[in-house]
Specification:
By secondary structure, the chain is α+β, with helices and mostly antiparallel strands. The chain has a domain at 67-224: 3-Layer(aba) Sandwich (Aminopeptidase), CATH 3.40.630. It is built from seven helices and eleven strands. The strands form two sheets. It has an eight-stranded mixed sheet with strand order 1-6-7-8-9-10-5-11, sandwiched between helices. The chain has a three-stranded antiparallel sheet with strand order 2-4-3. Helix 5 links the parallel strand 9 and strand 10. Helix 3 (96-103) packs antiparallel against helix 4. The longest helix has 15 residues, at 166-180.
Length: 228
Amino acid sequence: MATENRGVPVEPPPSRWAITGPGRSGGSDLVALGGDLEPGTLLAAYRAGLFPMPVEQGLGWWSPEPRAVLPLHAMRVSRSLRRSCTRFTVTVDTAFDEVIAACAEPRGEGEWITPEIRSAYVGLHRLGWAHSVECWAGPDLVGGLYGVAIGGLFAGESMFHRATDASKVALVALVELLRDEGAVLLDVQWRTPHLASLAVVDVTRPAYRRLLAGALRRPLPATLARPR
């Protein structure tokens, strides 16, 4: 797995918004409206268990109940998926802009990735907080995913594929990286039948907050540290 050189993420100025996450179970997945997409706001939100996704009323902040997570030591990798892992080359943080652009292509689930969202996460990537995993067939980018890493948390945002199993191969590589380098929490937001087949489970909002607190105390995996 190829990567860029390593360094330390840059902590941006703090958000001008007071950001706290909901601590109790129940209620809507959408917990707040407004704010901005400045790096300090995004990081404060992830540290509070929230993530942004636009809605008709504007910028929405979400805390799904239940929350979907992928236990790093429990991911199910079928024999056919394991074979697919040998067909592609996987890299980390070599094509972030291209990955988020591919995730944003009109195909239903990616339509929430507006130009403003793209710009915000590209900014986080430049600061060392947002990361991509790329899947290549020769010179062609055929799949990948991106998300935000803070300590031992990786908050997955979106993935795409242009070849069979390419996004799954990127996910397998991410799980192996996180597991081997001491991360403890892979957040995938909502459980879908596809993710459930890979061993994604639901946890309550309070349980997620406890997992998050432990993850934030962990160091960032070395592979996800890179130069400013």
